Amino acid sequence: MRVVVPFDAAAPKTRLSEVLSPDERSAFARVMLDDVLQAVWNAGHTPEVLATEPLGSSRPVRVDERPLSEAVNAVLAEHDETAVVMADLALAGADTVERLVGTPGDVVIAPGRGGGTNALVVRDPAFETDYHGVSCRDHRRIAREIGADVRECDSFRLATDIDEPADLVELLLHGRGESAGWLRERGFELDAGDGRVGVERS
Amino acid sequence: MRVVVPFDAAAPKTRLSEVLSPDERSAFARVMLDDVLQAVWNAGHTPEVLATEPLGSSRPVRVDERPLSEAVNAVLAEHDETAVVMADLALAGADTVERLVGTPGDVVIAPGRGGGTNALVVRDPAFETDYHGVSCRDHRRIAREIGADVRECDSFRLATDIDEPADLVELLLHGRGESAGWLRERGFELDAGDGRVGVERS
User: Fold this and answer.
1) Which residues of B touch A134 (CB under 8 A)?
2) What are phi and psi of A173, to 5 degrees?
3) B162 within 8 A of B171, measured Cβ to Cβ
4) pLDDT tens digits, one per residue of B123-148
5) pLDDT (average), residues A171-193
6) CA–CA distances in Å: residue A167 to residues A15, B97, B159
7) Closest alpha carbon to B144 in B109, B118, B111, B116
8) Of the partner residues B110, B133, B158, the one whose CB lies closest to the CB of residue A192
9) From start to end of chain B, where are the E strands?
10) Which of A57, A66, B24, B160 has a CA between 20 and 30 Å from the CA of residue B106?
């Protein structure tokens, strides 16, 4: 199945600015992207990066400057069956991608924490995305309106987009790709001192 | 399979004190407990509440005043196969419980956000729990030390214990039991005003 991985190359991961410099955020975003692409490859599928600008690397990239929903909808229009997996799902492994892609349904939604849509499978040509706002709720509604069979892919690994400092805890605890090692190399470790687990940087 | 549901009856849900009164927190904790018990029943299993004191209701309760890990270990010692599901996993439905219980392995861990162990299946008599600290990491280590085959149950619904105000967002968005309705009846609704979704109480 074609798996599209949208990537915002311009100003990635601004909510990590407390703990990472701009250059580090840019590098970290690319390491996470590579983990996601590797997971898709390992699951036997072909990832395609959908980026707002060229990434200056050997990664195959489709460049589309439009807002996320429009750019994704243009890809959906070209294929009968497409998965959309966000580039910061650094906990996802091949088994996670396999479960997503293996979930039946015209529209499969893997909700993210806080109402997002972290991964989607679309098998109905009438479905269009709308990532603005509480998108998992909106995507359920859009799917119902077109009479699509909507299913959920219930995954902690897909629900956890790495977006803010608290999410780094999850990556250090559960990451199986390069991103967790990248963090450790830069001095990040778990801080379980006061009962609630956090991260600290040495 | 026997499914144990530990419940702290004394001072439940203190981290919700910003948004719920003590009486409300106590009632809310019991509504969530009932949702979890219903999910276990609907999955075809028999729940047993493991509480620190009697609940004063018709629910079957095993009372054990010891700390959580000791009380759970006493139950594990009595059975070849036991699941342990926390009482605040109000997003769990029958399908969630079925997937947990259906995951093979001597020890199956469903991690919670922040390093917890929100649900467990134990099929090795040598395994003992230690819920203090970063328990999902400790449980993996304990299982490895006894040579047990450790598996993960990757579930957003099991990872989401309803503990603090931000978690109420998830319950309002994804809850399928009574707990979400209980919140709505008390004026809670999603607040998606400023881009990041939260809850507000009218």
Assistant:
1) 173, 190, 192, 197
2) -80, -40
3) yes
4) 999 999 999 999 999 999 999 999 99
5) 95
6) 11, 26, 13
7) B109
8) B133
9) 2-7, 46-51, 61-63, 82-85, 107-111, 117-122, 150-152, 188-191, 198-201
10) B160
Other beta carbons less than 10 A from residue A25's beta carbon: 18
Query: How would residue B195 be classed by pLDDT, with cut points 50, 70 and 90?
Result: low
Residue pair B6/B50 in contact (Cβ under 8 Å)? The answer is yes
Coil vs helix vs strand at B62: strand
Amino acid at B58: S
Q: Across the interface, which of B136, B154, B196 has its CB nearest the CB of A155?
A: B154
Place of tokens 């959908």: A50
In this structure, chain B runs to a length of 202
Contact B50, B40 (CB under 8 A): no
pLDDT, position A100: 98
Chain A positions touching B166 (Cβ under 8 A) are: 114
> Helix A22-42 to helix A94-102 angle, to the nearest 10 degrees?
60
Give the closest residue to A119 by CA, choosing from B114, A187, B86, A103.
A103
Q: Residue A65 to residues A52, A77, A119, A133, A137: CA-CA distances in angstroms?
A: 5, 17, 21, 20, 26
> Are B76 and B34 spatial neighbours (Cβ–Cβ below 8 Å)?
no
pTM over 0.95: yes
Contact A188, B130 (CB under 8 A): no
Task: Mark residue B140 as left, alpha or beta (left: phi above 0; alpha: psi -120 to 50; beta: remaining).
Answer: alpha
Residue A189 is encoded by which pair of tokens? 């470790």
User: Euclidean distance between the first and final Cα of chain B, in Å?
Assistant: 42
Cβ under 8 Å to B: A residues 85-114:
95-96, 99, 110-111, 113-114
Q: CB distance from B139 to chain A under 8 Å?
A: no
Paired residues of A6 in beta bridges: A50
Instruction: Mark yes or no for CB contact B113/A156 under 8 Å.
Output: yes
* CB-based contacts of A62, cutoff 8 Å, min separation 6: A48, A49, A50, A51, A75
Identify the burial level of B71 via C-beta atoms within 10 angstroms of its C-beta, where 0-12 means exposed, 13-18 middle and 19 or more buried: buried
- Residue B99's identity, in one-letter code, is R
Q: How far apart are CA B81 and CA A186, in angstroms?
A: 42
**Residue A106 contacts by C-beta under 8 Å, 6 or more apart in sequence?**
A122, A123, A124, A127, A143, A148, A149, A150
